[in-house]
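Reading a protein record of the kind used here takes only a little practice. The record below shows the convention in full.

——
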Amino acid sequence: MDRDRGPRVPEQRVPAPSESRETGGAVDLRFSVLGPVRAWRAGDALEPGSPQQRALLAALLLRDGRTATSRELIDAIWGEEPPLQALATIRTYASRLRKILSATTLISEAGGYALRIERDALDLFVAQELAGAAEKVRAAGDLNQARLLVNKSLGLWDGEPLANVPGPYAQAQRTRLEEWRLQLVETRLDLDLEVGAHAEAISELTALTAAHPLRERLRELLMVSLYRSGRQAEALAVYADTRRLLAEELGVDPNPELSQLQERILRADATLAPPAEQHSAPPPVSCPAQLPATVPDFTGRAAFVRELGGRLASSDGAVMAVSALAGIGGVGKTTLAVHVAHEARPHFPDGQLYVDLQGTSARAAEPEAVLGAFLRALGTPDDAIPDTLAERAALYRSTLAGRRVLVLLDNARDAAQIRPLLPGTAGCAALLTSRVRMVDLAGAHLVDLDVMSPEESLQLFTRIVGQERVSAERQSVLDVVAACGFLPLAIRIAASRLAARRTWTVSVLAEKLADERRRLDELQAGDLAVKATFELGYGQMEPGQRHAFRTLGLVDGPDISLTAAAAVLGLPTQDTEDLLESLVDTSLLESAAPGRYRYHDLVRLYARACAERDEGPEEAEAALKRLLDFYLSTSVRVYAIERPGDRLVHHVGPTVHQGIPFADQRQAQDWLYAEANNLLASARQATQGRRLQLAADLLWITQDLSESGANAKLYEIAALAVRDAAHEAGDLRTEGRARVAMTNVHLVTGRYDQADDEARLAADLARTVGDPAPLYWSDNDRGIIALNEARYEAAAEFSRRALEGARRDGSTPTEASALCNLSRTQVGLGRLDEAIETAEQGVEVYLKLGNAFRLANARYALGIALTQAGRHTDALEQLLEALELFEVNRQRLWEGTTHFRIAQAHLEAGRLARAAQHCEQALAIGCIGGDRIRGMVLITLGRALSGLGQPDRARACLLEAKSLLESCGAPQAEEARMLLAPLGTG
């Protein structure tokens, strides 16, 4: 059975019993003709009888309640050669159907028969209504809803319409319905292009044009998709292939629309540009509402509110509105921006996004990470988020295209950090805050925010404390706000303390603020002004609160979970929660979500200053070590669930913390990917001693993050930092382990020379210090490197050494991994029987261990061996199993690589269209191995297209493959050159 995946048509909708409005009559009946002719009553399948009896049922269903005469039914079933007893046979079939359906459903009248059913009882009529609704909403401009409706219509198909139904009428209707389905597919693809999903459409269009080579509309859509994906040469090659095919088959030229499209591509017609840059299909877009709560006592700033509100309200014009607020820390930029954003919400019905960019932090938020969070908030699944900043920014702009969304970018570092985060079209707006004026942010409306006036300061203080207490001590209130320098944050902190302490008078607070040694110099010194206002709250904290505040400020990362904070503080979770919630009450800590906390970046800087002043270096080092210990112990639990029996969990650590227990693999992986940014930031922060050792082990045990795609860049940065710090510290054991992590980083990106250098050094260091696990891991990695460089004898030797090392260590999963790599090496050496047997041993080991996570790699290796042995059906079975496992375990780059191997299997089996389709999916997703593997994918695609009679497009693919492979010195470049020879290079 072919389990391969065809074009992107949703799963068929099966009629459900719950849809019936009553039982016993026609209403609870459901019928299908968009596939086999079938019937259901209340969800239970009915047997419609013989093929001729189903032909009678189909003929009646398609007449939409109109009566069909016996003569018409005879012609429909038998055509010009009916049997002698045709009329009696018709009556018999009708009688049998009446017993199945009911006498009130199939009726006799006027010498014929008719079916009395609701229109929504037949899948065809439902499909027609959905298609009609799609046309209406498309005309109204709602393209996403139109796509959804067309997909629902297509989802009602279940193979060939009227499948296996005999007779001329059924054959004619089959042809008509198939043509209509193709028109629907073309409509859906046209909508895909309209919303910017051109890259994803290529795979399906490649398969469709192979199946329907003379259908010019499909060729036209394919040309546009390729052109918009930056593949102009291929787009023009499609036209050349089409012109040649039409001349050979029909003796005609392409239609005017296709010819005009070629001309527009040649002159780079601006109207062919995509609606917005996009690299993946826009997912179902949610409506985020991320704005922090506006303060109920917002005061003053009326002129600024009017000015900014007017700018945001004008964003429905031809230009996107961008407003930038600048001013010193604590001046109220965020408060004003959030208030204005809430006021403007009615103008942005499609949602509001918010992020604190931590611009004053030593490590400001990376635009890649922010875009990842925004895309998730807009409904994009993790595995659909691209790796690079440019790709994420393009997908972000495409997702926002045609929508009205407000983006609030708080605490920006500079314009360079901001630019990728700006929406790309009118209708959206961006409001941003920063300490610096964004003079280099083109088109931005700049607003300089100063401190409050004395009147506004008094109003703010009064609203927080209450009119009664202020009226009694007006002069003292003026003294307080003056001491705060009219800085809104300082005023708010002071007033909140007073409001929380009913026994204090305003004069008591004024006396506290009168001490200039603690306040005035700081208030008058720019950035230090905010520190002085924070000191007001910090000085009133209980000792335990102060310790928690300054200690947690030492931790890098965008936020911190409750369990991680408990590890940092060395306290039970409940005690930690009580402390953190009390800090939230002081406004010095924010609760981003239940169980998660974060600092404003200036508060974090202040907390660190307090830690430097009040905590000894030993205490700070111990706290950060406890955090890494927690991350490592919990990551070990994740690894153990994913890879039962793997000895690596015994080689890292030891740890003091027990880690978080998980119920199952999905829960474990959810934790790992949710904590990835914090975990990697913590590893990157380690610079010496035991913490550095923990960081290296943490990176080793979480290598999956480097292969997931979404976290690869942050992983590489952390691994580089730990490797260099270990080298500088002269810690050979830690350096060797960090180099194991760096080896994997280079392997994923296809930098094989650098990967080999790292693996060789890792092995040398491991050998020097007697660290066995990195030694056989490095041998395994060097085997993979040699394999990818076609150095098969060396690859076999490294794999055998890795196998022996794993066996000595008793690491059965690593042994299975070495077996899989050895199998691929044996394929390269032409020893196919051995390769299959070796890979099967790897599969068997993983199955016995219950290690589903890496079973995918074993099936992948077995699929490659079976492909080369010519056992294509068996190969596809293994590769499709591998693909499913990679998808479940969120290994996006491995998904793309497996699509490539599936394409190779189809190519070897002569299924060229399927091969091309999977190549396109591999190109869209990306692969392990970087440009080298991309070049090999393009070779396979070129071979498939050449076989499909598309030599010009094949040539374009092979030229790109040749360029990529030559640039990285890959031996496969020669194959590209050989394939290009008969096609020419012009």
